[in-house]
Structure formats: C-alpha cells, structure tokens
Amino acid sequence: MRDSHDVVIVGGAVIGSSVAYHLAANPDFDGTILVVERDPTYARASTALSASSIRTQFSNAINVKISQYAGEVIRDFAETMRVGDARPDLNFQPGGYLFLARTPEQAQTLRENHAVQRACGADVVLWDRDTLADAFPHLRVEDIALASYGRSGEGWFDNMGLLQGFRAKARELGAEYVTDEVVGIGCTGGRVASVTLKSGVTVRAGTVVNAAGPRAAMVARMTGLDIPVEPRKRTLFVFDCARSPEGTARVNGGRLPLMVDVTGVHCRPEGRYFLTGGVPVDDAAVDRDDFEPRHAEFEEIVWPALAARSEAFEAIKVVNMWAGQYAYNTLDHNMIVGAHPELPNFIFANGFSGHGLQQAPATGRAVSELIAHGGFRTLDLSDLGVARILGNRPFLERAVI
Fold this sequence. Notes:
By secondary structure, the chain is α/β, with parallel strands linked by helices. It has helices spanning 14-25, 61-75, 77-80, 104-119, 129-135, 159-172, 216-221, 296-309, 356-373, 386-390, and strands at 4-10, 33-37, 53-54, 97-101, 124-127, 146-150, 155-156, 176-179, 182-188, 191-197, 202-210, 229-241, 258-260, 266-270, 273-277, 316-329, 336-340, 343-350. It is globular and about 65 Å long.
C-alpha cells in the first residue's frame, strides 16, 4: 500500500465501492484510489443484510430519478462490470411495489406521490379497491381506499452481486482495497490531510470520502464534524406459507409484488418463501455492534398485519431471520452527499435510511463528479448536500419503509 493517495474512501461496501468504480471509470480522473474496509467478508454490512429492493415510488422527485438511474445500471450490470469472462448477474426480479392506503390522509399521500412519480416518467398506476381485488385476489381489500402499483422499474435483486460487481471492476480499473480500519483523520489548514489506520499506518489523502454506513457519524467526528446519522435496527423474517398465493396474481405473469401494508409491514416473495418485516414500535438508535434480531416483532407486529390482509398468510412459519442496521438520517430520512464547507475535501456519502443499495449507483456517480469536476454533471444532488443539515432545513422523503 502506498503512503499517499489522491482519494481515500472510508468503507468498502456498496456505497464506497460504487464511488470507487465510478471514480476509476471517470475519464477525467487519473488519480489513485484507496478503499479502506474493516471487514472484507461484509458479514455485518448494511449491504449484505439488506432486503435488496429497488423502487421508483418515492415522494421526492430526486429520489425517483436516483432509482431510475439505478435501474439502468442494474439492467446493464453484467456487461458493464465484466471482468475477463466474469459477468455478474444480479438476477433482477421485476415484481414491482404495491403501496396500500386506508385513510383519506394515506390516499391523498399516494395521489401526491403519484403525481411526482409520473412527472418523472415512472411507470406507476393508482388503483381503486375493485381493481386491486381483481389484480391480487388473495388480498382482503375491504378497508383499502387506494393502491399504488409499479408496473415496471421496480423489484429485487442480488445485493452482494451489486457490491462485488462494483468492487471487482473498481479493482480492475486500478482502485486499491485494504483490510484495515480508519481510527483517525488528520486535518490542517481547513482541509483533510491524512487518515490513520488501526494497523498504525498513516496515509496522506487529497480527498477523503465518508462511506462508513451506520458508522458515518463516528467517522465524521474524527474531523470534528457531526451529522445526524445513527444506526437503527431492522429485523427481517423469512417465512414459509402453507398455501402460498404466489402465482395467483392476474398481472405480471402471476408474480406478487413487494406489498407495503397500511400498517407499514412489507412482504414479498423470496423463491418458495416470503420475506417480511416492519417498523419497530421503539425505533431508537442501537449500538453499532447490535445485530440481535428482535424475535417478538414477528408475533407482535408482522404476523397480525399479514394475517389480517390475506387468508393465505394466516398459516405461516418463520424459517429464518436476521437483523441489519439502517444508517438513519434523523433530520429527513434522505441521503447526505457532498463536501462540508469547513473541510471542502471531506465528502459525505451517508444517511441513506434504508435506501443505500438502490441509491448506490447514483451516489457513486455523483461523488465521482464532485471529485473530478468540482460539481454535479448529470443529476444535480445539491438539495441533498450538507447545507440543509447545517441550516436544519429538512428535505423530506415521506415514502420511507
């Protein structure tokens, strides 16, 4: 490992590796890249523990466009990330998302979100109760006022395939990965100058990118800065179904979508099984090393909602579960991307609040543009920058799962 790099990226999971790839592939950047990752197995990375889905059904236009770019990347991933004869297949499953609304307020939110999505060209439709019942006959819809369904551009895919594809291509293009941990960041003259690693090595750095996921605030504090990002735990459950409704849909070749119930519980097919989860009642910050699943959430939150929504989900059995962590932006649930005015060569790529996997492609491209060109060239993410954090001006995303 060299003792000096033009760019040092703190964190080598999907965000850090996307930044490394997009920067290495940028024809206007000819510097060196070092990615520092504390755990190359990624066993507890948010990337590895994600539900691995993508949607265009957001309330904010910029988030819709971010996902649309990700959809393009996923579509072309095997060829774009080809290394030798290896073509990473993300096994994209175009199941779509289905959001349900019960109250007039929920229905109005879906209508407002739909207007934003359609203005961006997203393939999303609104359905009344009868249309919903006809499309998905296994659902109980008596209480539903409105539904929003993504007909294309939404689904789920291989999370680790996305990470490893970016990582392998970045390395082929010259990015260096090192197994170590950043424990200190040196600053001088209003700029970041170096990073100190747990191994004792100090590396001079022209630019440092914070891609540390749930540890983002800890890394920021090494420079004397603070961001409102904290680890929030989410437990996912895999269950078997005695009478699976998969294949009964009258749209999309019988495939069921990822359903977001009025309770906030979500559920989608996963092979012969189903993947599900919900928002904890006590959604507080957790220790960065806390990955113990909340077993009781299935009986107390998830199963009651699913059983009420479909007779098919009355008889189900958990076969697996795990917990991951959201890098949760407590200000507005949106990513923070860009440089800090006090340290212009310290760049944030943090606070994705559960959307990091699908937002990684656009984030990597944006950060590469900031470094290579000094500003955004494709999709303007200025509204997601640090200025709103410093000014306490939320840039809200309402469609958070």
